[in-house]
UniProtKB/TrEMBL annotation:
Belongs to the perilipin family. One of its GO terms (biological process) is lipid storage. Keywords: Lipid droplet. InterPro entries: Perilipin. PANTHER family: PERILIPIN (PTHR14024), PERILIPIN-RELATED (PTHR14024:SF51). It is found in: Lipid droplet. Its main location: other. This is PLIN3 protein. GO terms for cellular component: cytosol; lipid droplet.
Amino acid sequence: VSQVANLTLVSSACDMASTAYASTKESHPYIRSVCDAAEKGVKSVIKATTSSVQPVLTTLEPHVAVASEYASKGLDKLGEKLPLLQKPVEQIISDTKELMSSRVADAKDAVSS
């Protein structure tokens, strides 16, 4: 999970979502109260389930370690094949706009000639 979270694309998307969430909460008092209540609910559910899940996780730890190692190798290969994962969302959006603009300009030129 931490390896996925450290991918530039994922971390920049999370940063954007977090910023949008905080901005929305700050701008709209009614949404803030709903979000605060939801956050408290999630925190209490996490607290309640952590103690009951811990013994299961301890039992499964060797299996989780093997699965984690395979997942890590798979993510490394995916990162090699998809360099897009190493770019921030803003750059991907900018590159896409630039590409689309170029394609539209090419199409306009083709139609006019």
